[in-house]
Write a structure and sequence with these properties.
Elements: H1 3-25, E1 29-35, E2 46-50, H2 59-62, E3 74-79, H3 82-109, H4 122-127, H5 133-167
Antiparallel strand pairs: 1-2, 1-3
Length: about 170
Amino acid sequence: MDNYTGFKLSLLFCIIVLSNTAMAQFEDVRCKCVCPPKKNANESIDVKVVDVEAEFCTCLNIMNRDLTECANCECKHESRNTMTIEIVTMFIIALLGLLLIYMIFLIINDPSILKSAPDQPQFHLYQGARTNESTAGYMQRMESAQKRWKRQVKEQRQNIYQRHTLLS
């Protein structure tokens, strides 16, 4: 077996293991209990997260301790809507994808956006003291497109008002 096939198999194995682990950790409802260590043990804080209903979310049921040991424990029932979280996440990813596509479209239409003049310091760009030729060319194209658009709007208005007067 060559290295590439071994890499693909190990990658597939990791994806399967991680997807199964992720499926078990993210439930819509859960009970989280946090208790201090037992008196005779040299352990750290005891935390358990279990998928149970709200009425069973008690220290006695989850931690299996007696009533005196449960006095310092804190058990909280938590619920969340994972579908809403997934929808919001997908919306953000789609929005970022659209912005990336738009950026690529702008770069394809005007590759001079990425170019900067090597002899021109960056602070001049912010002060507006000097503009390079590519920026000036871009601005001229934008101004001509704006003038063309204004002319088309003016023609459309004239046509609408003329047709309106002819119809009435």
